[in-house]
Design goal:
Elements (H helix, E strand, L loop, with lengths): L6 E3 L14 E4 L3 H14 L4 E4 L16 E5 L5 H14 L5 E5 L1 H5 L11 E4 L4 H12 L7 H4 L13 H11 L4 H8 L3 H15 L4 H10 L4
Parallel strand pairs: 2-3, 2-4, 4-5, 5-6
Antiparallel strand pairs: 1-3
């Protein structure tokens, strides 16, 4: 049986030294789109990234190190086949996060994702910066769901200790407001706004405002 050969970008570590982030493995048959996305994730997100064909995710010849992230296309698969593929991957790679990558049309037909056993679902229509932020959440042990699927689940408003001011700042971040716009709208100094943003990121366990908004949406906070 021939060995599956991926196309990879970014440093995946060598000589026993691990890369700073896990490798993201993209499985999709849209080769050109995958190549562009893999390059972007590697260059802008500092995630080593490889891409293969969609069916290669089930290849017995595939060798994926524990901790690396599967980003597998869900497009073109009936629900029953998708569930079977997810169970197979979960059984073969129990220590690897599995994230589904889907078009908006496929998202509408996924139904509840709670039973899929995946760590996330990323729309193919998302901007690259948001895809990278979602992957950062997954790499740090969190999960990511897009707005299209949040309404199909019962969001749990988790008490994380946000102050009233931090809640207002978070709501502004979710609307895409800049620090300057938040300072004007909330009548507070810029330094105070920055302090609230840092506190929000710390309490949510994320590193930047984009990830903070994504996680807050997932938690039903905004």
């Amino acid at each position: 049986m021939s060995k599956t050969v991926p196309v990879c970008y970014g440093s995946r570590g060598k000589d026993g030294v691990a890369a700073p982030n896990p490798t993201v493995w993209i499985f999709d048959d849209f080769t050109l789109g995958c190549d562009v996305l893999a390059r972007t994730i590697a260059e802008q997100g500092n995630f080593p990234c490889c891409h293969l064909r969609q069916r290669d995710v089930l290849s017995p010849a595939l060798e994926i190190p524990p901790g690396d992230i599967f980003l597998a296309s869900a497009d073109g698969l009936p629900q029953r086949m998708l569930l079977r593929a997810v169970r197979t991957v979960r059984g073969r790679y129990p220590d690897n996060p599995l994230v589904l990558f889907a078009s908006d049309a496929t998202l509408d037909g996924l139904g509840s994702v709670a039973d899929l056993g995946v760590q996330g679902v990323i729309p193919k229509s998302m901007p690259a910066v948001n895809i990278i932020a979602a992957l950062e959440l997954v790499a740090h042990g969190a999960a990511y769901l897009p707005q299209q699927l949040l309404k199909k689940t019962v969001p749990q408003r988790v008490a994380i200790g946000l102050t009233e001011a931090e809640q207002k700042v978070l709501a502004g971040l979710a609307k895409g407001s800049t620090n300057l716009q938040l300072a004007d709208a909330l009548s507070m100094p810029m330094t105070t706004v920055k302090m609230h943003v840092r506190n929000i990121c710390r309490k949510l366990g994320v590193r930047n405002r984009t990830s903070a908004v994504l996680k807050a949406q997932q938690m039903g906070l905004v």
